[in-house]
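pinned: reference chain
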Amino acid sequence: MPKSRIRKKADFTPPPVKAATAIKLGNRGWVAPLMLAFFVVGLAWIVLFYVTQGDLPVDSFGNWNIVVGFGFIAGGFVVSTQWK
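pinned: its structure tokens
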């Protein structure tokens, strides 16, 4: 039987090195202060409503003051999605 040819394996060549590209995130310095402001205002709104037994912050809102306070807190969570 004839002898098979011996195949020479190709030498290993490492893949070319890619140059690192800088990622520009933009200026997001406003996110953390605004997020914390929403959280604090929402919490203060609800605490003020309970401490004054419904007289403040807005008397005509009645129990909807709780919804307004939680709305500020929810706004803080929405703004927090922009934080990188």
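why pinned: The helical segments are 31-51, 64-80. The chain has two helices and no strands.
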